Amino acid sequence: MSVVTNTTTIGAIDAPSRRNTELLLLAFAVAIPVFAYLNVGLALDGEVPSGMLGYGLGLGLMASVAHIVVRKFARYADPLLLPLATLLNGLGLVLIWRLDQSPRLNARADFAPQATNQLVYSALGIALFVGVLMILKDHRVLQRFTYISMAAAMVLLLLPLVPGLGADVFGAKIWIRVGGFSIQPGEFAKIVIAVFFSGYLMVKRDALALASRRFMGLYLPRGRDLGPILTIWAMSLLILVFENDLGTSLLFFGMFVVMLYVATERTSWIVMGLLMSAGGAVVVAQFASHVQSRVAAWLDPFGCLETAPPNSNMINACDQMTQVLMSFGAGGTLGTGLGQGNSDLISFAANSDFIFATVGEELGLTGVMAFLLLYGLIIERGIRTALAARDPFGKLFAVGLSGAFALQVFVVAGGVMGLIPLTGMTMPFLAAGGSSVIANWALIGILIRISDTARRPAPAPAPSPDAEMTQVVRP
Amino acid sequence: MNKPLRRIALFCGILVLALLIRDNWLQYVRADELNTHQLNRRVQIERYAHQRGNIIVDGKPVTGSVETKGSDFRYKRTYTNGPMWAPVTGFASQAFDANQIEKLEDGILTGNDDRLFFDSTLAMFTGEQKKGGDVVTTLNGKAQEAAFKGLGDNKGAVAAIDPQTGRILALASTPSYDPSVFAGNSLEDSENRQELLNDKDKPMVNRALRETYPPGSTFKVVTAAAALENGVVEDIDAPTDTPEPYIIPLSRTPMKNSHGDCEKASLNEAMEVSCNSVFANLGDKVSRDKMVETAEKFGFNDPEIDTPVRASASVYNTTMDRGGNALSSIGQFDTAATPLQMAMVTAAIANDGKLMKPYMVDQLRAPDLDVIQTFEPEEMSRPVSQENAQLLQQMMENVVDQGTGTKAQINGVTVGGKTGTAQHGVGNSKRPYAWFISYAKTDSGSPVAVAVVVEDSNGIARDDISGGGLAAPIARDVMKAVLDGKE
Fold first, then answer.
1. Which residue stretches belong to region Disordered (chain A) (predicted)?
2. How much is the mean pLDDT over chain B?
3. Of A74, A98, A255, B185, which has the fewest CB atoms closer than 10 Å, so is most exposed?
4. Is B72 at the interface with chain A, CB within 8 A?
């Protein structure tokens, strides 16, 4: 009789969970913002800021809770995502608090300190993050809600248009007002609609990929398969036209095209997507003055400041853009140092849409590049999660969320730096605003859940009762 | 699905890369341009963040800095005797930028100039307050005071130069303004400035450098220089062939003279009594192109006379016909000159034909009084030879001894000068400009050349307006102030 081998013993060597790596990184992610906080206080008042202990403890507590929950409920999750989000969130809080101290901004009637609110929103965000990890044990459950998600996303996107509920803030109608709170439903719709896209494309990918005709080197889909992309395109245009929001519109359409491409592996979708967004943008730019002034401010901000009619939207847009650009210019290579710049000269939305200019001025080229790389890391970890995921729904969902995150970062940072026309979106985790920070924590929570599922070692197969019986028969 | 995923990863990488490249473009390549942009309020904030350096005359500052509260500007500029020094200093206002020396030497005055880098860095370590450097001017306080007081309530300007070095000694313009009334950024400052801008007398115009006037008869010394340089006149006492009446070329209009003895008058006699006909005739004979050549050697038609404050270009038309040239030769028609330009003409003659480049910043000093830069005299051109310059001096001294400029005489000092009364307005309807240019001479050469112009002299009968009566006493006082200082 030969030696009996049992293959199940291989599973006994556990895959590394990387939780300790995450804990170490988290320590840095908390320490760096605390030092930044100290830095601002010393620069502004020459003394250690009184709120520092509270701030440090608060951030530390939130990070610890998140870490413990990940350790318990998503043991094999990607170790970078949580520290990256914590670092960005923490630095965002410092920047918002720094702008709260500005005498120039406080002199404005439409300005109110935001740091305390933002801390509460961050806590809510972490709570949602924890909720996602505790309730959503497997992301594939969400497949069941494909069509409900679609309906929910539609409702969320259209809410700002409901009279009495929607609020028009400087031309863009992307907020709703409930009680004393302004909510940006689009931030949540971003996640909900990704569920729909993933579920829908998973089912339809074969039809969309295979039934096509070849034309000039491109595989063109059948007419009836064009339906979904046309619908999404039309919806994006509607958002653009009725809500005056270029950013959200671009985000949804871009996300859809990315997911369509991943699902079908057909380059033709990318080409069509680009053509359709270009076409839509050109058509809308013809009659939406909101878009026109943004484009004018992008092409030649200093020039249009002189040519635009006084007191028009266009001149406001151009003035904002020049202030933002000069803020970046004032930062130079190393920046003025936290608390020592004059980015508060951007008087409107300095702590929300234009907060990245404060990074530019006070932390300089070095700081901005560091921030961009942090965002880049989140995006690449997200796509890595998609690569590692074993099920098509998870793959699509992860790449959809990461792609949307990437597009948002690009559209906002590119907008404030004058690379593309400015759109009214907020820098994830940095900008003041509850909806954004809460929704993005949920997004990170989902990515962590998918990555946990992806990296989790396959459960050990139950020892087969037949194992003893099987014998190798030697010739 | 992994192949498209990898491509998406690459695509996202490209997006981030595009942002990184754009940021380098913005914060590295364009940083300086954006940071010094005129719309950038940071420039102003920085300008007043530290005690601003001073502009120094005769070892004493004519400017100052006071701490202010309630805005993002920490310090505010103050001026001692602002109206008198405004044509030299210019203004530096929290709300309305700056001009002249305040603007041109801003780097030194704020302490941000690269040459002050060591001082500011040292100050950072020693914990001292950062402070701007000083700008030491060439001006002479006494001469400036004489000029400013002499002009009094009249509209006019004075420019005085040291002929041997080109150092500007006096630069006055009236009516003037006090730059301290709008140095801040309050509503009141803004109203004060608006009031000055609306004033029809234009007090904010620096007449000595930036306003051109028809130089009238004072220009005749340039015509005389051209005639001597080009051999049209060999002997200044020989009669010229000027008929009476002299008909302006290409026209039937006779040239008017205000004095009777101009027929065939010699150059010397013509200068003494300021004969229009003789100089129009000589200018015609010299020809337009040679006239242009001499005028340009004196500095006419040069748009870049930087003292370092840029003076407007004086004009001698280069394309006019013979008639125009004849009229231009007596300082009418298109000819126009700044007071500084006429002072340069006088200085070149007084300095035996060598024109020194006029300048008014002598030294730039660090806050600890270390000299950062000293400006040396520089030769600009040689419009006339030494012999001809001395002939011109002889004629100009005659004018003061026994001609139209007797009011400029100073006891015991050789003074040369030339009067001018320039017509202007349609049909000469406006009050003429009274001009006087002169220099004083001592054993060691000439220490001062001065040009005075007085506009629209209200309250004085029209016939009495002549350079000799109005402008010459001012020139005399300025010269006297400089001479007294030398003793």
1. 455-475
2. 86
3. B185
4. yes
What pLDDT is stored for residue A382 in this prediction? 96
**pLDDT, averaged across chain A:** 86
Question: Which position has the token pair 């959200």?
Answer: A248
DSSP-derived secondary structure for B226-263: HHHHTTS-S-TTSBP---SSPBPTTSSPBPP-SSSTTT
Residue of B nearest to A343 (CA): B42
In the numeric block, the tokens 């997004």 are attached to A443
pLDDT reading at B91 higher than 70: yes
Token reading at A20: 């300790």
Average pLDDT of the residues in B334-349: 92
Whether A58 is in a domain gets the answer no
Catalytic hit among B120, B217, B266, B466: B217
Facing A332 at nearest CB: one of B4, B31, B37: B31
Percentage of the residues of chain A whose pLDDT score is greater than 90: 46
Tell me the chain A residues in contact with residue B39 when contact means C-beta distances shorter than 8 Å: 302, 305, 322, 326
- Evaluate whether B177 touches B83 at the Cβ level (below 8 Å): yes
Residue pair B220/B344 in contact (Cβ under 8 Å)? The answer is no
- Residues B403, B419: Cα–Cα separation, whole Å: 9
Residue entry with tokens 């004058």: A418
Domains and CATH numbers, chain B: 209-361+381-486 (3.40.710.10)
- DSSP class of residue B74 equals -
Per-residue pLDDT reduced to its tens digit, A156-215: 888 888 877 777 666 667 778 777 777 888 889 999 999 999 998 998 888 777 776 777
* A83 is a domain residue: no
Residue B484 has pLDDT above 80, yes or no: yes
Cβ partners under 8 Å of residue B85, min gap 6: B55, B57, B62, B79, B144
* Residue A118: both structure tokens together: 């933002």
Residue A6 pLDDT exceeds 60 = no
Q: Is the pLDDT of residue B143 over 50?
A: yes
What single-letter DSSP state applies at residue A9? G
Strands B134-137, B55-57: pairing kind? parallel
Residue A246 located in a structural domain: yes
Whether B12 sits inside 8 A of A365 (CB atoms) is no
Residues of B in contact with A392 (CB under 8 A): 1
The answer to whether A326 contacts B1, with C-beta atoms less than 8 Å apart, is: no
Both structure tokens of B397: 């001294």
Active site residue B266: no
B124 touches chain A (CB under 8 A): no
Residue B315: how many other CB atoms lie within 10 Å: 18
Q: Provide the pLDDT confidence category of residue A39 given band limits of 50, 70 and 90.
A: very high
Note whether B282 and B271 are within 8 A (CB).
no
Report residue B9: phi and psi, to 5°.
Answer: -60, -45
Count of CB atoms situated within 10 Å of the CB of A374: 19
* Predicted local confidence at residue B241, as pLDDT: 82
Q: Is B70 exposed, middle or buried (0-12, 13-18, 19+ CB in 10 A)?
A: exposed
Does some domain include residue A334? yes
ipTM comes to 0.91
Domain span at residue A222? 142-455
Alpha-carbon gap, residue A472 to A167, rounded angstroms: 75
- Of residues A365, A399, A407, nearest to B5 (C-beta): A399
Peptide bond into B245 cis (omega under 30): yes
Which of A328, A330, A410 faces B19 most closely, judged by CB atoms? A410
Q: Which of A240-249, A450-459, B36-45, B355-364 has the lowest mean pLDDT?
A: A240-249
Q: Specify the pLDDT at position A291.
A: 79
CA distance, residue A259 to nearest chain B CA (Å): 9
Query: Regarding predicted confidence, which is higher, A239 or B363?
Result: B363
Token pair, residue A232, equals: 């999404």
Please state, in angstroms and rounded to a whole number, the distance separating the CA atoms of residues B202 and B199. Answer: 6
Domain count along chain A:
1
Q: Does residue B167 contact residue B138 with C-beta atoms inside 8 Å?
A: yes
